Amino acid sequence: MPKTQLSAEALLHEILAVQQNQLIVSLALAGLTKHQIREIVGVDMNRVTKTLKFFKKTPREKNV
User: Fold this and answer.
1) CB-based contacts of 34: which residues, under 8 Å, 6+ apart?
2) Is 28 helix (H, G, I), strand (E, B) or coil?
3) What is the DSSP letter of 59?
4) What is the pLDDT of residue 12?
5) Rounded-to-integer distance, Cα 17 and Cα 45, Å
């Protein structure tokens, strides 16, 4: 399958989407809620939910 050349604008859009996904995952791992993540990243709630769909939340450690 031959590779197709993306325009500069399309390439930048793809890079932005990947960075937003990475930020969403990082913020979720840090313990922020979906609403907080949506406000920080600046995307709609559906995008946040779709990105986090496959990640299980780890239990937080209890303060000793």
Assistant:
1) 28, 45, 48, 49, 52
2) helix
3) P
4) 94
5) 15
Buried b (16+ CB within 10 A) or exposed e, 21-34: bebbeebbeeeeee
Residue 43: how many other CB atoms lie within 10 Å: 18
More confident residue, 4 or 25: 25
Q: Which two tokens stand for residue 12?
A: 């930048």
- Running DSSP on this structure, what letter comes out for residue 24? H
Question: Alpha-carbon distance 37 to 43, whole Å?
Answer: 9
The model's pLDDT over 5-23, given as tens digits with 9 standing for 90+, comes to 879 899 999 999 999 999 9
Instruction: Annotate 39-57 with DSSP letters as a single string.
Output: HHHT--HHHHHHHHTT-PP
**Distance between CA 43 and CA 45 in Å, rounded?**
7
